[in-house]
Amino acid sequence: MSGLAHQRLSQERKAWRKDHPFGYVAKPKTYADGSVDMLRWQCRIPGKNSTIWEGGLYPLELEFSKEYPAHPPVARFPAGFFHPNVYDNGKVCLSILNPEKAWQPSISVKQILIGVAELLLTPNNSDAAQDNAYRIFKKKDRSVYERMVRSQAQKYADENVQPL
């Protein structure tokens, strides 16, 4: 791993341990043999209370390249995750994760996870990634969209999510 990427990710890990939003999880992936992969972080984003996302603990993986922080990580939910700004393969479409839009090397893991959580609540109609979810969300009657999200919240409820 690049020295700069490793150094920055080590700093990110220390900063996360000291200060992170309640209920969120972010840590480098640990394999069965005990080795740690600093370029792959396993994260969990809790669904915000009093929203259709409430009750879910949504698994997200951050994949960092050796060029980090010059290049953003790829954020990925499990394949098939239902959201207008998440591709079918799970990749999150968010401006702060796009080097041609709003990525800045100063953006932290904490800011990324908060940004993804905000995207869950407020999809971006001008940057759809998943046609089916986009069409359902865009309809005036949101009951189908809300039902799909609530079903997903049950799927990813705390007791159904595999431990990290």
TrEMBL record:
Keyword Transferase in record: yes
Keyword match Ubl conjugation: no
Domain named UBC core: residues: 4-158
Pfam families noted in UniProt: UQ_con
Keywords: ATP-binding, Nucleotide-binding, Transferase, Ubl conjugation pathway
Parts forming coiled coils: none
InterPro entries in the cross-refs: Ub_conjugating_enzyme (IPR050113), UBC (IPR000608), UBQ-conjugating_AS (IPR023313), UBQ-conjugating_enzyme/RWD (IPR016135)
Entry annotation: catalytic residues: C93 (glycyl thioester intermediate)
PANTHER family (alphabetical): UBIQUITIN-CONJUGATING ENZYME E2
Family under the similarity heading: Belongs to the ubiquitin-conjugating enzyme family.
Name assigned to this protein: G11404 protein
Lineage of the species this protein comes from: Eukaryota, Viridiplantae, Chlorophyta, core chlorophytes, Trebouxiophyceae
